[in-house]
Amino acid sequence: MPTATTTKHDTPGGDAPPPPPLPNPSTGSANPAASLPALWGYLQPALDHMVRSPTNSPAKAPAIEVSYHMGVHTAVYNYFTSQSEQSPGPGAFRAPASDKGKASGTDLYDQLDRYYADAARELLLAAPPDDAALVHYLVPCFHRFSAGAQAVSRLLNYVNRHYVKRAVDEDRGWLRLADVLDAVARTIQEDDTREKIQRRLRERRTEELRKFGYLDGASPADIARTEEYAEAASPPDRVVHLSALAYRRFRIEVLEPLLAVPKIKGKGKKKKPPQNGDRPAMPKGRLARSVKELLEAEGGDEGERQRLASGLAVMLRTCGVKNDHPLRKKLDKFIPPPEPATT
Questions:
Q1: 182 and 148 within one domain
Q2: What are phi and psi of 64, to 5 degrees?
Q3: For labelling, which of 92, 106, 126, 279 has a CA lying 20 to 30 Å from the CA of 144?
């Protein structure tokens, strides 16, 4: 999948026209909403086009025709509606408890999660073996993946509104009541009202968001963006919005292997630390080594170095790497400050 990160600098002749919108595939008399395999067969060409196809503009996903977009929305809506209307009659076979919810969107959501996992693993496998080239590969690669993820999230917004929102309301989202209950319970007084308890729960949620850069007085758009970072940082069993679902898979399948520190091999007695107070050089993960080479290289284009460092910082933040991570601390200073709001 390395072609997905092609830029205009890699193509002869500079800017090339964008690929034409993907047409609506013919389904004949088949009903795309009849089953998950039928629905997925109808959806996958659009997903592949948006997420995986080559493009000369990594920051913008290739488009699909309006009729295809409308067809996808209709098929997903009909699939959810038909599944929710199915209810076993008296004496009919009832699915086991572990299968509950499959008929209301979990199956499609899980299929999307597997799709993003496969796409992210392809990107990792295509990464160059040279540490010095890794950063130059990752930044446009993530831009392309992110553009596709955002396009798919818009295309399948019905899944966000119908399935994800309900899952969050049912305490299956990125932050669950059990995650904060112990901390809140220690502050609850016997005479506290329900409103006070709810306020403490909101305060605890805000404390969690601070780990991802939340600031007091942030705009609703900034709060939503910060919550997307927190969603991307959550474990895979938490239900999150589709864009965060993609970023979480990018973190798990691409970033975590590259951030992993190799284990020191060999047996024998451990060496004593030096007496002069200098710490011995510790092994670093591939991405940390690549960043070190980028920032410490002599000469070269300083503007390009700044651009790559900023792109890496945005990638780590977007995929849910917390702001106290050593690599984020090193790279966040390269993110340009937000532009002041115009009145």
A1: no
A2: -120, 160
A3: 106
277 vs 332, which has greater pLDDT? 332
For residue 7, the Cα-to-chain-centroid distance in whole angstroms is 22
- Check whether residue 109 and residue 192 sit in a common domain: no
CA distance 134 to 254: 12
Q: What is the pLDDT of residues 164-177, one digit of tens each?
A: 999 998 989 998 88
Whether 212 and 113 share a structural domain: no
Give the alpha-carbon dihedral of 152, 154, 155, 156, to 10 degrees.
90
- Tokens 């404390």: give the residue: 207
d(C-alpha 221, C-alpha 223), whole Å: 5
> In degrees rounded to 5, what are phi and psi of residue 233?
-85, -10
* Same-domain check for residues 115 and 209: no
Q: Per the structure, how many domains does the chain have? A: 2
Q: Within 252-322, where are the H helices?
A: 256-259, 286-296, 302-318
Buried b / exposed e over 75-113, threshold 16 CB at 10 Å, is bbeebbeebeeeeeeeeeeeeeeeeebebbbbbbbeebb
Helix, strand, coil share (%) of the chain residues, nearest 5 = 60, 0, 40
Q: Is pLDDT larger for residue 127 or for residue 188?
A: 127
For 131, list phi and psi in degrees, rounded to 5: -60, -35
Structure tokens at 198: 């709810």
Give 307-331 pLDDT, tens digit per residue.
Answer: 999 999 999 999 999 888 999 999 9
- Domain coverage including residue 31: 2-11+19-85+102-166
pTM (2 d.p.): 0.84
Task: Say if 62 falls within a structural domain.
Answer: yes
Residue 142 lies in a domain: yes
Task: Tell me how far apart the alpha carbons of residues 318 and 315 are, in angstroms, rounded to a whole number.
Answer: 5
Say if CB 311 and CB 290 are below 8 A apart.
no
Cβ contacts of residue 65 below 8 Å, gap of 6+?
21, 22, 23, 24
The pLDDT tens digits of the residues spanning 264-287 come to 665 555 555 555 555 555 568 999
d(C-alpha 330, C-alpha 292), whole Å: 10
Tell me, yes or no, whether 50 and 131 share the same domain.
Answer: yes
- Residue 64, helix vs strand vs coil: strand
